[in-house]
Amino acid sequence: MGTEITTDFGALGEEFSRNPHPVYAGLRAQGPVHRVRVPEGADAWLVVGYEACRSALADPTLSKSWQDASPALPLARLSAGENLLSSNPPDHTRLRKLVAKEFTPRRVEALTPRVQALTGELLDAMLARPAGRADLVEALSLPLSMGIVCELLGVPSLDRTAFRDWAEQALSSSDRDTRTAATAAMTHYLTGMVDDMRNRPRDDLMSALIRTTDEDGGRLSPGELIGMAWLLLVTGFETTVHLISMGVLALLQHPGQLSALRADPSLIDNALEEMLRYEGPVETTTYRFTTEPLDIAGTPIPGGGELVLIALADADRDPARFPDPDRFDIRRAAGGHLAFGHGIHYCLGASLARLQARTAITALLERCPILSLDAHPAALAWRAGLLIRGPRRLPVRWLPGA
């Protein structure tokens, strides 16, 4: 593969945001690595196909640290402070060990009653609407995922509207100045939040991280505290919002699969893995940078901080790994998908995301025996950018009193 740009993602428009899979499949048919241009204007190496993506995810020569990025790349930093997604071992190992104890299966399972209760409250409010119509993102997906993460971190007073806007701008805007301004606004907000929590510690995750910093000789720097707050808040709600929304959308667009799940609710866990494979919320990974020349699936890539993107959305639609990959089948053996990544950067909150999605979708189907999409699929507006994928709104309708 040469250095000529094969695809300018910034020029593909809304149809690509709505359905990027044909574009990725076309690239995959030509080979596993391509020279592309991202919406921000930077040139990158895009990895497609299951095996190439899985290998690249575990490649230690691809750095997550912005210090390794080439100064020539016209990119705005994706996060505030240092965190798990912008660090390499040994710093990454230290940070992950510190936070991982709060995301053990036992800790996540202990959150089940609260997830169920909040889901019930949100559905009560939604189903009380006499018109039998709602935007599922605003009524359920967003307030559930943001609410649980905020409670976990101990941030009840978060300005959720402002924070959501900053997060979307920082993660999805193609304008570098917009992304930079949004990141700066979040950094300022989070700095004040962490300072307040330092002065008034509570029994929550952020207070635990702050206590660890204070009592254990500065294991987390001020910048790392801000970075961890950014990571847990932004990735903690953005990905789960779209996992729930796109999971419901996939069911509504495949009535046979929806009927099968209603007939056998025990299929929910397998259905959830198929939702993650078929339309996961992370389209491409956060940025990686080359620290030395390397070879990916036979393609030489220079060192010196070149940008590398890994297309998770394409890996999980690769027919070499998942036969008939464009078919949504809740009975499929979807294990091994890369929706949560692979290797040392595998998503720490995967269990919590699964818990929320399982609870929300199960309760929604139980309480709405007649549920349908309240808009033509082509009319849905989708998030822009290459990182987070999902509809901005998901209009649904149900039969009141059914």
From TrEMBL:
TM annotation in the entry: none
Keywords assigned: Heme, Iron, Metal-binding, Monooxygenase, Oxidoreductase
Molecular function terms from GO: heme binding; iron ion binding; monooxygenase activity; oxidoreductase activity, acting on paired donors, with incorporation or reduction of molecular oxygen
Pfam families: p450 (PF00067)
Highest taxon above the source species: Bacteria
PROSITE patterns, alphabetized: CYTOCHROME_P450
InterPro entries: Cyt_P450, Cyt_P450_B, Cyt_P450_CS, Cyt_P450_sf
PANTHER family in the cross-refs: CYTOCHROME P450 YJIB-RELATED, P450, PUTATIVE (EUROFUNG)-RELATED
Family statement drawn from the similarity comment of this UniProt entry: Belongs to the cytochrome P450 family.
Protein name (database record): Cytochrome P450
Organism: Streptomyces jumonjinensis
